[in-house]
Amino acid sequence: MQQPLELSGQQPPGCGKCIPVCSDPGNAAGCCGGSGSSIESVRKGPVMCSTGCENPFAGLVALLRAAWLSGKTRPLEYRVAQLEALGRFLEEKKQEILEASALDMGKPSFEAYLTEILLCKNELNNTLNNLCHWMKDEHVSKNLMTQLDSAFIRKDPYGVVLIIGPWNYPVNLILGPLIGAIAAGEDPCWVPQGLVVTVSLLSCPLHLPTGNCVVIKPSEKAKNTERLLAESLGCYLDSDCFAVVTAGVQETSRLLENKFDYIFFTGSPSVGRVVMAAAAQHLTPVTLELGGKNPCYVSDTCDVRSVARRVAWGRFFNAGQTCLAPDYVLCTLEMQEKLMPALREAITEFYGSNPRESPDFGRIVGQKEFQRIRALLCSGRVAIGGQTDEKDLYIAPTVLADVLPSDPIMQEEIFGPILPIVVVASMDEAIDFINERPRPLAVYAFSSDCKVVAQVLERMSSGGFCGNDTLTHMTLTSLPFGGIGCSGLGKYHGKFTFDTFTHQRGCLHRNLGLEALNTLRYPPYSQQKLGFLMAAFEIKRKGTCTLL
Predict the structure, then answer these.
(1) Parallel/antiparallel/unpaired status of strands 388-389 and 464-467
(2) Calpha distance 541→548 (Å, rounded)
(3) Whole-angstrom Cα distance, residue 42 to residue 27?
(4) What is the pLDDT of residue 517?
(5) Element (H or E) spanning 289, and its range?
(6) What is the pLDDT of residues 346-398, one digit of tens each?
(7) CA-CA distance, 112 to 120, in Å (whole number)?
(8) What residue spans of 93-171 are helical by DSSP H?
(9) Separation of alpha carbons 200 and 294, rounded Å
């Protein structure tokens, strides 16, 4: 989804054996009237260490774990307060977010507001609207032997989790998972089914930690947004339980050496493998939101103008730096000839005759990415666009025709404003072409014939699917978002984010009475006892299922 991180050279936080020293002793109480906790000092200040500590982040992780074990994140009111604080951050820092996005990538304010603010608010409000329901124990069916007992699924948080974000949507792809991490956990007042009791949320009989503590690692490539998150999030979130770490490749590698209870990573498959290998050292579960080459099949029966506008919007949104963007088009030679003028018309409609002057077209994030994308222009034939300006990090919206499967642009995710068209003879050939390659994050199919769209959906595997449009399926909090195979592992958005950061614990609470019923399972065994247990436990197959 993004290229590997670059070194920032920033001082990492201290370990448990180090002495954290606040960078501003006169403001040790915190940036916004905070508590002046040790975590805040570690997060913001330099470190003096004379003990030869093994890992510079161990102390930070230990402090967060202590906060989690204390039960501070447990009450529903606490989690709601932290989520509402994120809402205030989005509202009060709206202009700063838009400005940082413009400085980092030349991102148009319209695109920045839609993706970095509005979608985050939707996730936040959806979570706040449903949290009371999501967190409740889920009671399940029982067999004959357990009819008098309580069987349920408890929603436990993992503990201390790490969220590593990318540079292309640096606010959305940090705050989206963060919302679920904060919300995750059970109803703090556990009452077995059938037991009637009145109890306050804050005086529950159990004092178990719930709600995760989080280490947040933004991408250093979007340096202005990284600085905004590092300097501002601590003013809204409880610094005892949430810490922002700014780090480059080497520091992030040291961070990953620590034991986390869950790691959520968004980025490139190559870095995802590194994260997964580090997590495996502690058997830590992971979500990997990666990317890939998302195919877009266009059939011969479609409204060409509508297809061109929707494909062009999805490909050139954020200057093509979107993991979900259609990466290449598959169509017949006849359709390629029809699409070209329609795509040219759509690009002119969106960005004018000179897209470089358009306020609605962004820039490439950095020199390294610019040079990589520009080198891909040698593939096929430039039919539309192709202009570049290295000083301005500008690559025009470009369409390549007559691209071969062996061309360089078809060997990697483009992640830039270039759309190659690969000619196929039929839908069957297009499906075979896609299935011969790693499973993508999304598959797109355009056709006026619903049966064609249905066939593409049915005969391929991908993280997600969208028929007759691009990108829009990810705006629904009701749909899971995530990859499969090389495009990712796990899913989130809406309740799926809550579930991602929640361990679903199977629980059975039995009555200590009626012990005579249990003699059937105790030795000495007999055929008669086995018969009774089979009657009590066995699940018999019902009639065959018929799909309508």
Answers:
(1) unpaired
(2) 20
(3) 14
(4) 86
(5) strand 286-289
(6) 999 999 999 999 999 999 999 999 999 999 999 999 999 999 999 999 999 99
(7) 11
(8) 94-105, 109-112, 119-134
(9) 51
Q: pLDDT band at 543, cuts 50/70/90?
A: confident
Contact yes or no for 41/24 (Cβ under 8 A): no
Compute the half-sphere exposure of residue 122: CA atoms within 13 Å on the CB side of its CA. 15
Strands 160-164 and 150-157: unpaired
pLDDT digit string, tens, across residues 114-124: 999 999 999 99
| Strands annotated E in 375-510 | 381-384, 388-389, 394-395, 398-401, 418-423, 442-446, 464-467, 488-489, 502-509
Give one DSSP letter per residue of 409-423, joined into a string: GGSS---SSEEEEEE
Question: 394-395 and 388-389 as β-strands: parallel, antiparallel, unpaired?
Answer: antiparallel
Could you give the residue ranges of the DSSP H alpha helices within 118-248?
119-134, 172-183, 223-232
Q: Using an 8 Å Cβ cutoff, are 319 and 395 in contact?
A: yes
The residues that are catalytic are 289, 323
This prediction has a pTM of 0.88
Q: How far apart are CA 529 and CA 261, in angstroms?
A: 43
Peptide bond into 524 cis (omega under 30): yes
Beta bridge partners of 208: none
Q: Are 516 and 165 in contact (CB under 8 A)?
A: no
Q: Are strands 488-489 and 286-289 parallel, antiparallel or unpaired?
A: antiparallel
Q: CA angle at residue 299 from 296 to 300, to 5 degrees?
A: 145
- Measuring CA to CA, which residue among 325, 338, 311, 299 is closest to residue 464? 325
Cβ atoms of 189 and 204 within 8 Å: the answer is yes
Q: Which residues contact 493 (CB under 8 A, 6 or more apart)?
A: 123, 176, 474, 476, 477, 479, 480, 481
386: left (phi over 0), alpha (psi -120 to 50) or beta: left
Give pLDDT, residue 209.
Answer: 57
